[in-house]
Amino acid sequence: MSATLELHRLAMPLVRPFRTSKGEETVRDVLVASWTGADGVTGWAESAADPEPTYFPEYIDGVRLTIERVLLPLLAEASAEPLTSAALRAAFAEVPGNPLARGLLETAVLDAELRRHGMPMADFLGSLRRPIRVGVSVGIPGDVDTLLSWVGGYLQDGYRRVKLKIQPGWDLEPVRAVRQAFGDELPLQVDANQAYTPADIPLLSRLDEFGLVLIEQPFARHELLGHAKLAARRGTPVCLDESVLSLDDAMTAIRLGAADVINIKPSRVGGYLTSRQIHDVCLANGVPVFCGGTLETAVGRAANLALAALPGFTLPGDISATSRYYAADIGPAFELDAEGCLTAPSGPGNGVEVDRDAVEEFTVESTTFTI
Ligand code: NPG
Predict the structure, then answer these.
(1) Are residues 14 and 89 in the same domain?
(2) Closest Cα to atom 16 of ligand 1
(3) Do 158 and 292 belong to one domain?
């Protein structure tokens, strides 16, 4: 095979620190891949991996090593020229895990494939390229007044759904304050990023009075039974994020009654094809989904917008405008329209023309592999 893979590790300054129960980021440390096939067409992809295994078991250095030591050697055996996403999936069929590493490569190869065919990602996934309502995820500030000023600012910006990050000691009070300040009509949801245990069910039950859209990932990743117990109360709907790293995880969660809603983050589940499968299973089982986010650059944001236009994405996703996170990006900025919506670009693949100068400017480390 004659192809080139470049892995760019970027340091992207955030316009505002982003704090969750897992820690704070002021600069997004993000891995972006470009794949250039035998015909010279380049595809791009972005990973949700963090510098440490914070939200997911995989992390940036691990993803890079998995790609170098495990995945690229498997691709060297693949005969399709230029490589297709189907051939790549066949080559990786026996890899038992590592969805972030697999997903990064698969998405870059898929993007190149779609660009080769002149086909937008939305058309490939079967979604209508339509404006979709998006939400904003609000990090944990120092105090309630700051939270209220942040939320007020985001509502003015046009966001129609707000997600508050919560953790023990920062839950009932901020939620009550936001409800009181902005009213019962505001679609409001919370995300704990695994910060509670099932022993906290009585405390979390007190959130029911605030009429939340959902509570996301209150317990540890493996706590499917705990999530099922919380969901069985039929109070605030329970959403899973970090617990779902594959289609199998999604099916098990649905069968156990552990997920009233699933957050689909393409990078977390191994790419857009698996995301589409999870979407289909959720739709067939009456489980609404929304598209998660990990502070994406234009590359990930554009592809997520294409996915989030599928019919089962009935809840606004964590796909904010670029300016929510970045003053400068590696591709065109996405801005909310007058209805608080974003639309996927119309060009082939993810539709983003990546600004290579910007990539270079933000790159702190890059590696090139020839396959
Ligand atoms: O708008 O892109 C966004 C961020 C949405 O809150 C968000 N992401 O826990 O879902 C999450 C969180 C996250 C960020 C998770 C970075 C992992 C890494």
Answers:
(1) yes
(2) 294
(3) yes
Q: How far is CA 126 from CA 123, 275, 295, in A?
A: 5, 12, 25
| Whether residue 203 is found in the same domain as residue 224 | yes
Q: Let me know if residue 348 belongs to a domain.
A: no
Q: Are 326 and 12 a contacting pair, CB within 8 Å?
A: yes
Q: How far apart are CA 285 and CA 279, in angstroms?
A: 10
Read off the amino acid at residue 311. P
**How far, in Å, CA of 153 to CA of 159, rounded?**
9
179 and 308 in a single domain? The answer is yes
Structural domain that includes position 221: 123-342
22 is catalytic: no
Q: Are residues 193 and 280 in the same domain?
A: yes
* pLDDT value of position 89: 96
Atom of ligand 1 at shortest range from CA of 135: 1
The confidence band for 78, taking pLDDT boundaries of 50, 70 and 90, is: confident
Would 347 be classed as within a structural domain?
Answer: no
Residues 335, 364 share a domain: no
Ligand 1 probe mutation, 47, 59, 63, 137, most atoms within 8 A of CB: 137
C-alpha 295 – ligand 1 centre gap (Å): 6
Indicate the pLDDT class of residue 239, thresholds 50, 70 and 90: very high
As for ligand 1, residues whose beta carbon falls within 6 Å of it are 20, 48, 50, 55, 137, 191, 193, 241, 292-296, 318, 320
Domain containing 8 — which CATH number? 3.30.390.10
Rounded to the nearest angstrom, the gap between the alpha carbon of residue 153 and the centroid of all alpha carbons in its chain is 23
- Check whether residue 133 and residue 198 sit in a common domain: yes
- The strand pairing partners of 367, in sequence order, are 7
Place of tokens 């901020």: 174
